[in-house]
Amino acid sequence: MIDGRIIKALSGFFYVETEDENIYQCRGRGVFRNKKISPLVGDYVRFDKSNPNEGYIMEVKERENELIRPPVANIDQAIIVSSATEPDLNTILLDRFLVLIESKDIQPVIFITKMDTVSDGAIEKINNYKKDYQQMGYEVELLSSKEPSQLPDLGRYFTNNVTVIAGQSGVGKSSLLNALNPSLLLKTAEISKSLGRGKHTTRHVELVRVHSGYVADTPGFSSLDFSEIELEDLTDCFPEFRERKEDCKFRGCMHNKEPKCAIKQAVDKGEIASYRYEHYLSFYEEIQTRKPRY
Questions:
Q1: Contacts 24+ apart (CB under 8 A), 253-260
Q2: 67-216 CATH
Q3: Per residue in 60-106, pLDDT tens?
Q4: Does 119 carry a binding-site annotation?
Q5: Hey, what CATH topology would domain 2-62 get?
Q6: Most C-beta atoms within 10 A of its C-beta, which of 64, 171, 196, 285?
Q7: Is 173 flagged in the annotation as binding?
Q8: Residue 252 labelled as part of a binding site
Q9: What GO terms are given for molecular function (predicted)?
């Protein structure tokens, strides 16, 4: 039996990389289907070698975490790529990504691209957003689309990490990865002017090497739902709420209509950005009114 990690899944085959960096094309055992186990990219597995560089996966080891879309397991961090323009920075969409990633106990990092295309009047606004998210505890990088080889040293984010790149289509995810590792030659999407969004360019999930780590390049998202998040867990997906929730007068405070709520008091004092609280209320209502799952 050999240990390895799945780095690509395609057409029913799983490509497993071992510690010595050999890659084996494997199939999953039929018994997995009976047990409703679906191997995912990022899974640590044990497999039997049947032929040179071929094998059968016999065991999927316990996961630290997993995402449904993209289907990846054992992720260390998610880099959320938002663009300053084309499409314009959308904080409610950024917060949707942050909430989903926080709900999986994955570390988020924010990259804002295309800063060279921002008008002088909008630069201050973007810088204020950067300051807000840094105060929440997030790392934020502002990136130019010109001279990608002159990107600041972003390698530190990727070294020894498994990273998911998330963001809506057309924000420059593949362009960013190409700049970090030109040998990847990932396809880049042209913005569709009529639709105002990019075309999907990535067809399968694969872990690729970037700066001594792995990155999953995945399709862009246009919508995200909170079907896996329970109402009582939403507060913990906002770090600036999480650190203050014990100061609320009532245990189990949902920071909505309750009196003497520490979160609402912090919003009134300007310690929590008002748009973050508005997004929280919007997400709260969305989860509260969703149809029950059976």
A1: 254/284, 255/280, 256/281, 256/284
A2: 3.40.50.300
A3: 999 999 887 778 899 999 999 888 888 888 999 999 999 999 999 89
A4: no
A5: OB fold (Dihydrolipoamide Acetyltransferase, E2P) (2.40.50)
A6: 171
A7: yes
A8: no
A9: hydrolase activity
